[in-house]
Amino acid sequence: MEYQFQTGTLLLLIAAVVAMLTRRLRLPYSVGLVTAGIILAVLPFAPKIFLTKDLIFTALLPPLLFQAAFYIPWSQLRRDFSVIPVLATLGVFLSACVTAVGMHFLANWEWISALVFGVLIAATDPVSVIATFKEANVHGRILVLIEAESLFNDGTAAVAFAVVVALTSGQHLTSIAITALLLNSIIGGVLCGAVVALVALFLTGRTDDHLVEITFTTVAAYGSFLLADHFGFSGVLATITAGLVMGNFKSFGGISERGNESVQAFWEYAAFVANSLVFLLIGMHEAHQNFVAIWLPAGIAIALVTLGRAAAIYPCCLLFSRTSLRVTWKHQHILFWGGLRGAVALALALGLPAEVPLREEIITISFAVVAFSVFVQGLTMVPFLRRMGEIPR
User: Fold this and answer.
1) Would you give the DSSP letter of residue 107?
2) Per the structure, how many domains does the chain have?
3) Is position 76 within any domain?
4) Concatenated DSSP letters for 203-230?
5) What is the DSSP string of 128-172?
6) 3-state SS of the chain: helix, strand, coil percent to 5?
7) Pick from 371, 390, 336, 297: which is nearest to 124 by CA?
8) Considering the domain boundaries, does residue 261 fall inside one?
9) How confident is the model at residue 250, as a pLDDT?
10) Is residue 35 within 8 Å of 21, Cβ to Cβ?
């Protein structure tokens, strides 16, 4: 326990120093953290802490998902509520198909390995996306689109991944069974999140103690995820739902005025800590990946994932081109290049069962795609946003 406390303290110290340096150098915080993690991993006193699916999903992801959803206003989300589900469902399907087909024919992977990789890498990571866009001080419709799409995209990809993994384990699922499994996971996750959030709001309305109010929001963030996961539903969608419900009903007598200020400060800090640990650990893990040995399939994968993201954005947005929900070309380009990959894809890859063919190659190439996403897309995102006119030059 003492060693873990020392490790956590060291990582937080590094995160704070990196935050100061990246702000002075005007670099993306995520890039600085991953770089710091790579450097830290090769030092003789590097802490022995490993990136695992459980660590990401159970400890670090719930506060990030909850905090992001908590501040998405329902009035703005409702306007684009037809666009976002299409991007997060049909978009994920198209992206996964492009990647899977390409890995099968170009990298000579067997179909099941290609399909597993295609689905897990289709999820744009809300951790990376939201951090990058908020650092760039982006506002308006594009911020809501990119935040909401990355959150729901993440949830549907995780649900689809569970189905694909079930198929790899030898289960013979009919189309009806697959549909039932998907609906069960999605609806169950949403219901768990809504119930936990409403109970938390009810209890919060019975106190004006800001510390108790913070505690109830924390219970909602983690409790919704754990409850849904316990019943085999989507924990990701449960936490997103809990955040949306608590964030948009907090002004209706649930959270007091003082409590609202305290809750906001607490969740900003919680997201900062979780975000910092995620990217530091990604960097530490990437330092031990042998990318040279898999440079060709990794290069193919990066090209296919980029192409898959284009297939997820442009055709889906075309469906709304003649409606009031039309997404401008400028915003489509931002959605395309803003589809960063990160902790979610890695958590899914690290949680692959041992019997999945090419498991180690899938994990290593997933890290390669995330490295490209962080360093190439992350470093060029702000100049790209300036060129698109979303932020001042």
Assistant:
1) S
2) 1
3) yes
4) HHTT---HHHHHHHHHHHHHHHHHHHHH
5) HHHHHHHHTT--SHHHHHHHHHHHHHHHHHHHHHHHHHHHHTT--
6) 80, 0, 20
7) 336
8) yes
9) 60
10) no
Radius of gyration of the chain (CA): 20
3-state SS assignment for residue 15: helix
Q: Are 126 and 151 in contact (CB under 8 A)?
A: yes
Residue with tokens 């330092």: 287
Which tens digits make up the pLDDT trace of 305-322?
Answer: 999 999 999 999 999 999
pLDDT in tens, 349-384: 988 888 889 999 999 999 999 999 989 998 898 888
Q: Which amino acid is at 279?
A: F
Q: Which domain holds residue 201?
A: 52-387
With cut-offs at 50, 70 and 90, classify the pLDDT of residue 214. very high
pTM comes to 0.90
**DSSP 3-state assignment of 337?**
helix
Element (H, E) at 255: none
- Nearest-5° angle of CA 165, CA 375, CA 337? 70
Please report, in angstroms and rounded to a whole number, the separation of the first and last CA atoms in the chain: 48
Q: What is the DSSP letter of 377?
A: I
Q: What is the CATH number of the domain that holds 362?
A: 1.20.1530.20
Q: What is the pLDDT of residues 5-29, one digit of tens each?
A: 788 888 899 999 998 998 888 888 8
The reported pLDDT for the residue numbered 14 is 92
Run of H or E residues at 102:
helix 83-106
Nearest CA-CA partner of 127 in 346, 388, 364:
346
Angle at 270 between CA 264 and CA 273, to 5 degrees: 145
Tokens linked to 346: 């890695």
Enclosing H/E stretch for 367: helix 359-372
Residue burial 262-292, b: 16+ Cβ < 10 Å; e: rest? bbeebbeebbbbbbbbbbbbbbbbbbebeee
Q: Is residue 241 part of a domain?
A: yes
The verdict on residue 13 lying in a domain is no
Whether 284 and 40 have beta carbons less than 8 Å apart is answered as yes
Burial 28-49 (b: 16+ CB within 10 A, else e): bbbbbbbbbbbebbeeeeebeb
